[in-house]
Amino acid sequence: MASVATTDIVAYMENYIMKNCLWQFHSRAWDRLRQNEKIIGITSQLLCGEEVDLSTPEQKCYWIDSVILAENYKKNVPALADMSVEEIKDVMTQLKDRIDYLTVNGSLNLELTDKHY
Amino acid sequence: MPYHLFKCSECIPEREKHAVIKGPGEDLTSALPLGYLNTIPGSISERGCAYCGAKHVIGTPMKDVIHISHGPVGCTYDTWQTKRYISDNDNFQLKYTFATDMKEKHIVFGAEAILRKNIREAFEAFPNIKRMTIYQTCASALIGDDIDAVANEYMEEHPDVDIFVCNSPGFRGPSQSGGHHTINIAWMNQKVGTVEPEITSDYVINYVGEYNIQGDQEVMQDYFKRMGIQILSTFTGNGSYDGLRAMHRAHLNVLECARSAEYICNELRARYNIPRLDIDGFGFEPLGNSLRKVGMFFGIEDRAQEIIDTETARWRPELDWYAARLKGKKVCLWPGGSKLWHWAHVIHEEMGVEVVSVYTKFGHQGDMEKGISRCEEGALAIDDPNELEGLEAMEMLQPDVIFTGKRPGEVAKKIRVPYLNAHAYHNGPWKGFEGWVRFARDIYDAIYSPVHQLSKLDISKDEIPGNAGFVTKQMLSDADLSDEIRNDPNLREYTGKYSIIEDLQAKTYPEFPRSCHEVAV
Amino acid sequence: MSCEVIEKERAGVINPIFTCQPAGAQFASIGIKDCIGIVHGGQGCVMFVRLLFSQHFKESFELASTSLHEDGAVFGALNRVEEAVDVLLMRYPDVKVVPIISTCSTEVIGDDIDGVVRKLNNGLLKEKYAGREVHLIPIHTPSFVGSMVTGYDVAVRDIVTHFAKKGEPNGKLNLITGWVNPGDVKALKHLVKEMDIDATVLFEIENFDAPLMPSGNTVAHGDTTIEDLEGTANAVGTIALNRYEGAKAAKYLESEFEVPAIIGPTPIGIRNTDTFLKNLSQMTGKPIPESLVRERGIAMDALTDLVHMFFADKKVAIYGNPDLVVGLAEFCLDLEMKPMLLLLGDDNVGYAKDERILALKNNVNYNMEIVTNADLWDLENRIKNEGLELDLILGHSKGRFISIDYNIPMVRVSFPVYDRAGYYRHPVVGYEGAIWLAEQMANTLFDDMERKKTKEWVLNMW
Predict the structure, then answer these.
(1) Domain boundaries in chain A?
(2) In contact, B174 and B36? CB cutoff 8 Å
(3) CA gyration radius for chain A?
(4) Preferred mutation among B30, B282, B342, B365 to probe A, highest tally of A CBs within 10 A
(5) How far apart, in whole angstroms, are the C-alpha atoms of residue B149 and residue B165?
(6) ∠ CA C365-C314-C368 to the nearest 5 degrees?
């Protein structure tokens, strides 16, 4: 029962990203993997109430996209409020794997592996 | 199978992989149209050339530059005045175009001598302009003229001028997109970092991939100025040459059209560690979130929120008036490269229309990934469409309106589908909060035009109503609306002016205090 | 005080008057029924020209590209011509005529379009399209020669040369109109009909003004048929109205098939229309009817209302297609106006010998300049930096900022006109055209008087 709910939550989160965000669609595979890791990672930190490293412009730039995500998830996934840090991290890991799959590993975009910009 | 082969393309079956219908439960890994491949000769594709992508789309919006094409006169003529990229420099870039007018003898003997003459003549005709961009064309590329050498020689003799050379002949690559890439990389390599700018704010951005169509850039610039942000350069709408030479000093690259300008953003990140933030300037929520993100980056999100609150209060009632009347209308989103994904989701969310098709003339698979992610199930996505496929799609989908280019719009007109110009807009600007209402109003005016209704009547066959001398747009749009919506006192039609740019250009902005040391970003 | 003919001094072009040759060839193609031209070159060569046509006519026209890409530029691209022909013929089963139009890129790389046409005629057309009538016509129009005007002239000649076929005399007159509007074709057909003459109009573009119909798709297209083109060899005569747009074809028919040719004049204004009717009469033996005397009379009446009251000594600058520019200058002189500056937008060597231009040179007794190989900076610079004062500009829409920024009234003529509604629907030729032109000029001047408050009260009592 818990896993069904988790699937729904991940599906909601995935759908929000794919409908509204652009950060997951940089033009190369390595960029996408990094973007996904950082932004979903920081979103996870925000949802878990953890402190985020904002020491560089690069980090700030990931963080701002994460803030928007976290805000939306908190508002539209009330179940998050009752989840433990572990459960949240589990959901977010599933989300990251799913976004990695959609945008890199399972992607049919042939330009992702081009060496040059 | 989500891949879609048009009947008219059965004889060129390779087209099947260029169109996809987004099926229920499917995701991007099920099917994605191929993209940015060589065009099929004779297919009557919508595509243009790489010279266009470099010179016309990206180069010429620069407002304080002499734009000269090294080649015969046609390339320059064809790309002169044919876009609505205005500027606050009295539209110098729209009014004047320059060509070296290569002739047969130059093809045989080379044209570097007339190039030299042309550079001198152009600067002499416009002594107040000290910047120039020289664009290679098919002809000058094929005869191997060394434009860079001629330009460098001139710059040595005239240290007060600066010249940028862009080698993007029409045949370089399958479409305009090759030209975007060439000019991005060339500008990065030749010009970025060659000027140190005056910094006037603690918060400095480059606004990238924005071409000031009908004033879009000036609308967005107004928001940034209200937040106290310095736009060091805009690449390239309403942009200045020297501003763009200083791109390396920005804290953040705010990127709109990733299709044409992500290349320079990637290079700026790689070489100068400037982060890249992709935004959407269209639609209340995406725009609001975009302004908040930029604000948050600099720690001034309260300033962004104030703008969002003010603008939303002013314009939401008008957007909602149109949205109530556009709900369920079918649109084909058929632009060049990026508006398919800028608009696909938000136009459904905020105006209620159904996007039944998206296409891209010169985009890459990445644009399709974004577009298909954002559109609804059942939408038909087409890469590199050709004219027969466009007609077949319109017959199949029966859209109420299409957003596309001027000439394909004429094709749609003939089968009684009203069109709005997706590249140059009808009554723009369409960016910003007020702009988005202007877009909604244009869609409304197109769909509910009484003339459009009249065009469907065959007076030789159909019953002629004959009981009315006129019909209003609102009679047509409100016919099936509930009384509650029709009479909602909180909603109203657009109350803005015909032209909104003059007021923006006349505005003054508050001074924001500078911190006394370099802001640690 | 005199009229001088000079060549533009600068080497380069600032604000061109014309685009390049392939546009002219494409304009000729769209006048033919069941014809889709293939432009062999970069995609821009077709895309922009289709856009230009759509701006002028507010219609879309079908033209294809061989889509030259980098590999073709290096290794040659004739295979793309072959593929383009095949793809086009497969997908457009009604197409019968396919001009293959070269561009600067494919001429520089040396692609032999004549050779590939021969190859296709003997190969693909015989094998895959046996029994289907298809005419492939190679047309050489590199952009580094001439302009859209010469490209049109070359294309008309090549098309007529391809089709003209000796047969029984058909009693028709070939009327080669030159680069005109649907409104012009309608007016010319009217004149010819009043003279009871059966004419083959090249090209029959009246239906470029295509309707929006309740059922079905009506893409705008031309109506000149293969039969029309074949029959040109058997006509009683050819009149090519524009020396620079169609004379080559007329001369070909004369030398090859002994079809007598008269070149010009462009029937702009009363005098040139009179001459046109005289030529029509001479060539066919038909008399000029009373109905045309009356029509001329209506024009005379309209002009008389305007000339010495409003047009006398008004200074005009004129640019656009060359025969049009000359015809307009001649008409303006008849209207008592003063053409001050004529701009001929390419380097055609014929201008120096053109007896109409020599006539201007010899008879105009005030300072007038005719500039060859001109561009629009030649006009603007004279206004901005050399004190040229003008009351009116006659030219196409690309010069609109000169009118706007220097506050000089302008009547749009020539091609392209896209910043005014419906001009393609009106003639500038014939008696009707004389009325249209004169009244457009008058109303434009009147509007300007009102905006500038210059004797605007005069119109209270006109």
Answers:
(1) 3-112
(2) yes
(3) 14
(4) B365
(5) 10
(6) 35
**B near A: at least 3 beta-carbon pairs less than 8 Å apart:** yes
| Phi, psi values for residue B467, rounded to 5° | -110, 5
> Is residue C407 pLDDT above 70, yes or no?
yes
Residues in chain B predicted with pLDDT less than 50, given as ranges, are 520
For C83, the closest of B41, B94, B405 (CB atoms) is B41
Tell me how crowded residue A5 is: count the other CB atoms within 10 A of its CB: 13
Residue C421 pLDDT > 70? yes
What CATH class does B204-311 carry? alpha beta
Q: Are residues A57 and B275, on separate chains, in Cβ contact within 8 Å? A: yes
Closest CB to C14 among B8, B96, B117: B96
* Cross-chain Cβ contact B370/A22 below 8 Å: yes
- DSSP secondary structure letters along B492-513: ----S-S--HHHHHH------P
Instruction: List Cα–Cα distances, B295 to B276, B298, B306, B484, C436, in angstroms.
Output: 15, 5, 11, 38, 59
Confidence of residue C387 (pLDDT cuts 50, 70, 90): very high
Residue B187: half-sphere exposure toward Cβ, Cα within 13 Å: 30
Chains A and C touch (3+ CB pairs under 8 A): no
Q: Is pLDDT at A4 greater than 80 in this prediction?
A: no
Q: What is the model's pTM?
A: 0.96
Residue C251 backbone zone (phi > 0: left; psi -120 to 50: alpha; other: beta): alpha
Q: For chains A and B, what is the number of CB pairs under 8 angstroms?
A: 95
By Cβ distance, the residue of B81, B170, B410 closest to C58 is: B410
Q: pLDDT tens digits, residue range C134-190?
A: 999 999 999 999 999 999 999 999 999 999 999 999 999 999 999 999 999 999 999
B357 contacts B397 by C-beta, under 8 angstroms: yes
| CA B119 – CA B193 distance, rounded (Å) | 24
Q: Under CATH, which number does the domain B50-178 receive?
A: 3.40.50.1980
Q: How far apart are CA B266 and CA B235, in angstroms?
A: 14
Q: Is B48 helix (H, G, I), strand (E, B) or coil?
A: coil
Residues 6 or more apart whose CB falls under 8 angstroms from that of B36 comprise A111, B174, B175, B177, B362, B363, B364, B365
The SS3 assignment for B328 reads coil
pLDDT of residue A1: 42
CA-based nearest residue in chain B for residue A107: B29
| CATH 3.40.50.1980 residue window(s) in chain B | 50-178, 204-311
Q: What is the pLDDT of residues B199-239, one digit of tens each?
A: 999 999 999 999 999 999 999 999 999 999 999 999 999 99
**Six-digit token pair at C393?**
């500009």
ipTM of the complex: 0.96
CA distance B61 to C24: 29
Q: Report the relative pairing of strands B354-360 and B380-383 from DSSP bridges.
A: parallel
Proportion of chain A in helix, strand, coil states, percent, rounded to 5: 80, 0, 20
| Min distance C46 CA to chain B CA atoms (Å) | 8
pLDDT at B516: 66
Tens of pLDDT along B477-496? 999 999 999 999 999 999 99
